[in-house]
Amino acid sequence: MSSPDEPPSLADRSTPPPSPVRLVATGLVAAAIGIASTIIVAATTVAVLPDTLVGVGSLVAVAVVAGPVGLAVGMRSREHWIGPTILAGGLLGGFLYLRGQAFVMQGQPISYPLLFGLPGAALSVGSTLGGGWVGSRATIVRRLAPSRLSPLTRAGLVGAAGWTVVELLFGVGAAATIGSTVDNTFVVVLVATTVGFPFAAGVVVWYGRRAGIAREDLDYRTTKRTVIVGTAAGLATALAVQATGFAVTSVAGTEAANAAFGFLLADLEAGVWVLVLFTFAHGVVAPLTEELAWRGIVQTALVEARGPVIGIAVTAVLFTAKHAILDASFARVPSVLVLAVALGLARHRWGTIASTIIHVVVNLASVLGLAILVFG
Questions:
Q1: Above 60 in pLDDT, residue 6?
Q2: What ranges do the domains of the chain cover?
């Protein structure tokens, strides 16, 4: 019990029960996030694990996704967690099971029967419910609730998560709308980048401005020094990224690299127009928008809230994780992490213009290298 002069604790506060519509909406949103995340995490797991471990690995991937989804629902819904959690877990489990049955109806064997079968469906429901129960506990809410974070820390973390979700949605949307008409996977990715990245950057900037990040905090210093430093550091970073990629290939073998980039090389052969679109999307749109959002907003917020070491490190890790999740591959993680650290240090020392120039130089260098491989 709290004294009359003290504000009620989180556990003592009485809040009106949420409406049924809100509970259903929470379950549906959680299910959508769970299904999309499961597809990405399971695809990554299948790509990196040997055949003997794929079955068990895919089940672990389901648990890794479903547990946190249930945790978030439980923290949001508290004593009303059961309904939306059952809805989210049931839809995720139903999706996995029905996907397996679709293989059967098409006369094909079920690929990864543990994942697309009763084990995967049951584990997804159980993990979601378990996470929901844990998240509904008052002690968990006190420790993990976003309200305990400072506004700037929330701005950085929400900005990173928001970018990832928007990029995923645009990728799925592009695949659904033009994927069936254009027999070129890479073109779908490039269209999603060209359209989705500016929108994602706008969302992150809007949220950051609401959290108190002013335009001058973005630190866009355009001077002769920042241009020279950015260009020189960009060339050095491009060499470091390439060296890291070669080192990973020498350790992991060429199969991992082919899995990550094989389709890209084949799709570039469709014509020079694909190369032009690649240069614009990857060499211009991506670095401009990613630096605005990730180094301009996310890193600025986290550095102001937690200091430069933690702010730069967390931004680099989140940026790398975003690429691993959306690429459904761990093959590029070391190279992207090297790039992310270089961009974070440059932005902190010389401003966002310098980090943007580095990003442009590195991406254009990769475009040039792939163009030479494809067109000689």
A1: no
A2: 20-147, 149-375
